[in-house]
Amino acid sequence: MKKGCKFGTHRVIEPKGTLPQPAWKIDNDMNIYDNEILIDVQTLNIDSASFTQIKEEANGEVEKIKEIMLGIVEKRGKHHNPTTGSGGMLIGTIEKIGPALEGKTDLKVGDKIATLVSLSLTPLRIDKIKEVRKNVDQVDVEGKAILFESGIYAVIPKDMPENLALSVLDVAGAPAQTAKLVKPGDTVFVIGGTGKSGMLCLYEAKKRAGITGKVICLGTREESVNRVKKVGLADEYIIADATKSVEIMEKVKEITGGKMADVTINCVNIPNTEMSSILATKDDGLIYFFSMATSFTKAALGAEGVGMDTRMIIGNGYTKGHAKISLEIMRESKELRELYEKLYA
Amino acid sequence: MKKGCKFGTHRVIEPKGTLPQPAWKIDNDMNIYDNEILIDVQTLNIDSASFTQIKEEANGEVEKIKEIMLGIVEKRGKHHNPTTGSGGMLIGTIEKIGPALEGKTDLKVGDKIATLVSLSLTPLRIDKIKEVRKNVDQVDVEGKAILFESGIYAVIPKDMPENLALSVLDVAGAPAQTAKLVKPGDTVFVIGGTGKSGMLCLYEAKKRAGITGKVICLGTREESVNRVKKVGLADEYIIADATKSVEIMEKVKEITGGKMADVTINCVNIPNTEMSSILATKDDGLIYFFSMATSFTKAALGAEGVGMDTRMIIGNGYTKGHAKISLEIMRESKELRELYEKLYA
């Protein structure tokens, strides 16, 4: 059995010398190296920005969606959307564990796990697409995947349905980072607060900002804002197009009495919302971009352009304890869990 | 005289409702609004990533460079490179000040200033390109530009040549942010440490990390690394291709005895260096991306992909006092000033 690199560089086909994520193409042969884990894949959870793009390209037609997805994996050896640059995650059962991992991993053959590393670096083979669940970005397949030694994962909890856990784990980084960033008394502005990651961020923000803080939710549609309002996830609600930066600024100014937000969390999966984030935030505030549609240059030049000293953080999908923190929300809030189950599971 | 918005939204032609920076096209008519400042432009300092792209597209031919630059301004009303998304800055003399700014600004007609907001949002008219200084990314022109009310600027200091001040101010955000991020005892890794912003970052890093810290400079070419070595800007030097993440990681591991960097500052103007930054940094370290060639998704997914909890910051070109901090370096270090004058002025 061949010896593999911790980060999976042995799977990179082109360009050589890079890691599997930035690589254009990786090897998806399912004979494992000595430090790899083979997974029998059950469900792919496609990144929201990626799946939105695929659905648009396919005009919403299921057969065309399948074709595009199979094409991506065929070309790249992984489900790494070339347009959005993003991936997603998967759920499956451990089929084989490389001997070099013995004593290093708690996993055993037969465990059901969710991989918490992106599909954009995970060797994947799809034998058949069984079902496309368009509204929840989930696709059931027959196929295999590889988890590298450095790859993170979570064993699926037994006290909630699999699809619910998968939906929560897919965006686990966002609420966990929110929990770490928000301090008591903070005014927190969540852009895209009615979405999959946004709702969890609202929940954590409200919990951490506490009674002296203020949490503001921005959503595009009245229907989805009302949904969130019913669960009481925020203190204030704005219904507006997230790309209309000047309008957003005026509304946040009104709600905060001109003080603006201490922390802004951007979870909306559409482009051109950098400036709304910047203008809604205090000069010495902090912006956390979790959206994969964020443009680095638009954020950097945007803040400079309006002379704002705002700290802007690139949303890292991983932070210590993120699976634990996010799954716990489903246990804490019965109302949010019910809503989440209805929408995403 | 027409009343203008603080941020210059009155100049946006398309798409409406956005700010001048994200806008595709802005109005470069040189009749000023009541809160605008008219500048007689002398020199454009094109952003390094942008100018590298333009030079490549022009195969290095000066006439072709001029044509591309005029084309950009013709199409967009600003020098906003559509490929890189970045701008640059300019130097010029105040020609007219809108009456609404009376008592609000210290500037007077005749002052020579550098604008510290990006060219990617500055209304610009180029009447003639007089000289292209290819090696310093500077272009002398006859033309006019507009500074908005929110626009930041620096009056050119009298104790150093203009072109030197302009080169320093162009990258002022990077050393000023470095000064704020680096703590005594830190191990600091500067990627692209031999470049225009990199050298200033090295200087600030060494000053702030102090005798108990360690500053590591990464450069691509032996010649430029030797230049920096002669001035003694770093404690350790690596000569390598910044895109070779695994190689870079091994070298930083060796130098730090496996501890890796506390703070990594990425100043290199080439794509695909996100992973090198991540692998060279401690799991709980901090990465500051100043390079405009940074890809948001590559950074976000890259860190997640290797299970790293690293905090990654989007380099904001502006931070309070940035002009003062960076110009002061030229007064503090005679050696660095000499090198800077030779290379960039």
UniProtKB/TrEMBL annotation, chains A, B:
Q: Which Pfam families match?
A: ADH_zinc_N, KDD_N
Q: Could you tell me which InterPro entries the record lists for this protein? A: ADH-like_C, GroES-like_sf, KDD_N, NAD(P)-bd_dom_sf
Superkingdom of the organism of origin: Bacteria
Q: Which GO terms describe its molecular function?
A: NADPH binding; oxidoreductase activity, acting on NAD(P)H
Q: Does the keyword Ribonucleoprotein apply?
A: no
Specify the Alcohol dehydrogenase-like C-terminal domain's residue ranges.
205-295
The residue ranges of the L-erythro-3,5-diaminohexanoate dehydrogenase N-terminal domain are 10-157
Keywords for the protein's UniProt record, in alphabetical order? NADP, Oxidoreductase
Recorded protein name is L-erythro-3,5-diaminohexanoate dehydrogenase
